[in-house]
Protein 1
Amino acid sequence: MLGARIAAPFNKKISLFVMGRRDLFSRLEKEIKGDDPLIWFHCPSVGEFEQARPVIERYRKRGGNERILLTFFSPSGYELRKNYPLADWVFYLPMDSPRNASRFLDIVKPKMAIFTKYDYWYFYLTGLRKRGIPTYIISAIFREEQPFFKSWGGMWREMLRCFTTIFVQNEESKTLLLWQGVRNVVVAGDTRFDRVSDIVSGVPSSNRIVESFVEGKRVLVAGSTWNEDEVRICEAIDGLDLSIVLAPHEVYPDHISRIEEVFHKYKVVRYSQNPSEEDLKGAQILVIDCIGLLSSLYKYGEFAYIGGGFGAGIHNILEAATYGRGVIFGPRYHKFQEACDLISLGGAVSYTTSGELRELFALWLNNSEKRAQVSEISGNYVKGHLGASEIFLKEVFSL
């Protein structure tokens, strides 16, 4: 925490991390009062919140009336969801230490704790176990290279034994846990499938700007892109009859200007500038320079590109797959179960070079049978993985 305070003046995200935890216990004590039952959901960041969300929303719809405390570790999750209406309180999680964990649990007094995917905090988990509070983790996934399965990972294995039940995404995760003697495991799947299905069912039926742009064009929707993705896409579409709806991961003015420089050979229009019908029809690149639209855009493309594969890892591919779109992404996808699954099934393809990407674009543009095949695979894959939230609610709440 000391290092974060030192770095805070030079980094906006770190500054939010530090400022959000200032006087945190005083605020907790002031706002969380009474002895009514409370369920504590913890999410590392915004992506994991999307896994907790379908559980919370189904719980509420079925009459679950316990108060809900939602905590985040990262500023990106907290800042985006601090006003989430189905939670009674949203806070940062205090840093993990014996004193902080004990004080937090004394104030909150949770009836139950639910963690999401991979956030493991030793003092919180052991504190919950000592107090006999039922503790769960949803949509967890395990790989052999993780510290739980190393000779030196004793502390990590102790954290696994703090959970009442571990809800995992796949059989491989269950097998790894069984090798360590952890038997309170349920293979439920990934609750994100339920979330993206909810998103698609609730998206607006039309978007005037996007529909005017795509009319009469062959269209690729490229979502959550970074500069490395955008450069390769630009090189790959040269000479192809392919227009792009481009929704970058970052919509800062500098990045949008950089996109316009990358695609300088083409007519580029910005969504936020409310372009005219004439400008939209004559453009080849529509840049979505605002947030909150991406999940509704994939239906407008013949196939999809997901960014992040040349950085830390690809972003969410399930929204595109839910619409039954074949998916293309860069080489860093191996930590994402759904990406590995779709590649093995034939509903997604990974590439490395601009030349490979151009070949993929040409194949899926010119071969309608292939395009229909990958689309069917993607759509059926999502449909076949719905229901993880239902399994959790039935097992834990009998709902």
Protein 2
Amino acid sequence: MFKALLVDKPGDRYQCTLTELDDAQLPEGNVTVRVAYSTINYKDGLAITGRSPVIRKFPLVPGIDCAGTVEASTHPDFKPGESVVLNGWGVGESHSGGLAQKARLSGDWLIPMPAAFTPRQAMAIGTAGYAAMLCVQALERHGVTPAQGEVLVTGASGGVGSVAIALLSGRGFRVVASTGKLDETGYLKDLGAAEVIDRALLSAPGKPLARERWAGVVDAVGSHTLVNACAATKYGGAVAACGLAQGMDFPGTVAPFILRGVTLYGVDSVMAPKGKRIAAWNALAAELDPLRLAAITHEITLAEALAAASDILAGKVRGRLVVNVNK
């Protein structure tokens, strides 16, 4: 038997409970992982609370991320005892996921854990931090450099934003952090932000074009915030978008794209191919300061993850929540 969060929907009643399962209740897969740590992302918050129809199969263990040790494997790439990381691939949505002490998965979804990280550190990064690196790499491929000017990070105190600030400042960028939590200014500056602005400056409807300011943008918010970020991006600049904390809508115009040549990159972390994942994780291992990673990390237990899901949706969480599934 092993502990797990389990989401079910008996009748019209949605519920997520801490329970015990046995191996027979694990889904199909060719790798069984003894999970050490998982995490709570925004999508996990939606799945656990039922706020959005993230889960498409019941009953199901939520958790789009996990890190741990291979317990059994018939996949040619993985042997028992090896450390692995999982991000995405529909796990925690249509296939039972990482908020449990065991997970059975397809080996095609796994990557070897970089030697630089412990399982706890890997989950302090999680999908949020891995998505942040994908965004930074999108700006890099576009040719955005520190010499071109400031870079904006929205949703700055969240998981994506916190890691993005640390990565961009480490690369020499002057980072401007947008947040609804101005009392976290000290935290954001410790991560490397040069300036902190109130998200209210970006979250309301704005003009089709604003004064050019940003050489690049990492956005985890969407809606009016993303539109206003695009409107103030410099000629030929780039915006990497990976989230929807404010909303899925894009209530804007084509003006920044056809008048200033701004490029909007959609960044997907769920179905990214293995090579792209490994490159992102290797870059994280090389660039992410362990002290800054520790500063954004807060550890909780599996039972505490139930309340944390509502907190992350309410914007009450700073940085990254790491779930110790064995506590």
Protein 3
Amino acid sequence: MNLRAATVRRKPVADLVAESDHGTLKRSLGLGQLTMLSIGATLGSGIFVVLGEAVPVAGPAVVVSFVLAGITALFSALSYAELAGMIPLSGSSYSYAYATLGELVAWVCGWCLILEYGVSVASVAVGWGQYLNELLRLAFGFAIPDALSQPPGSGGIVNVPAIVVVVLAMLLLLSGAKESARANAVMVAVKIVTLVLFCAIAFTAVKARNFTPFLPLGLAGMSAGAAKLFFSYIGFDAASTAGEEAKNPQRDLPRAILLSLGIVTVLYCLVAVAAVGALPWQQFDGQEAALSHVLSVVSGNPFWAGLLAVGAIVAISSVVLTVLYGQTRILFAMSRDGLVPPSLSKVDPKSGSPRINTLVVSGFVAVLAAFIPLGKLADATSIGTLFAFLLVNIAVLLLRRRQPDRPRSFRVPLSPVTPLLGVLCCGYMMFSLDGATWVVFGAWMAVGLLIYFGYGIRRSRLA
């Protein structure tokens, strides 16, 4: 076999579009549901879980860290919007890479997406358990023992609550995409109301002195905070994984991606200002359920902190559901291309969902959530996501050059400047992450390449 020819073979855009038109998944999602899908996958993971880790790194400048991470996400979101309208497939950036950069790079991108989606679900599932314990402490005066609510390395043996929320999301996904979208819409409404309530209470306690000095840890701390908080924006691309289940993908996918990112960024910045303005940044160190802690201190009434914990539990459940959905659809596309076993692309005729795929992914995520600490998960997710986003920006540049006349329902403004800025921002934030994260990423890539050269390269449909 000619390895070089095999690894650079590309899937024509026309073939990808034909697959989306004749797919086995049911088209049942409109603009509202697609937007809620992206908001559900994004809103909650960072603001409820990772904020408590980012504030000690950046200080009050964490507000700017959110903006910096949001701008980085915006460049990539514009590229996603163009490609999602042009190639409306479940494979998201994996499929875009297949059409532009060749099979090997597509595999690497898909392998990064498995890291991004699978590990981010596990990470926020860990956060779900933290807020559940916070609620139990406030309401009943007890909590699940660390042995059963923390992973090894964080004082526990197994994280049972994290397993529970993953299993509940799995059961919803097995019922079908439309049913899952309805449940997600309700959960998204609850979490938006919860965050607005938090802002209304916390802003009453905001003090100007809590913002000085604004950069106690310097520009390096602000950049490190942005790299850590980029995890908070993972999920805006979830709508692109629903390309084969959208009723009007060319029109609705670009709108859903950009609309969801805008809503999430505004909410994140408001909550960050309220949180660090109401409480000195030094007091965030070691706080797992950070927003509940802020309300406990500010209001002096455990009722509000308990109410926020309920909202956080619902919010994080929504993230688990929608990101798990995205992971199953990407694996579905990779399976259909022959790069992973064909059983993962079999669709249940009754529910219209890939049943075996959903069970396998949920099992993988549950194990990660049960046994791996949150911080390591979040950083590993960020680097995989940044790499995938970098490839999406490159794909826009290549398709603009190779197929300038192909119809596009949305076009990235100021191209090629905007996609190039996306490449540079993603690269900069990748190098802001610590060496240990790069070691994990390198090991993950090595395993992925072994699987591709041992299995996928010969079983690919293009072979």
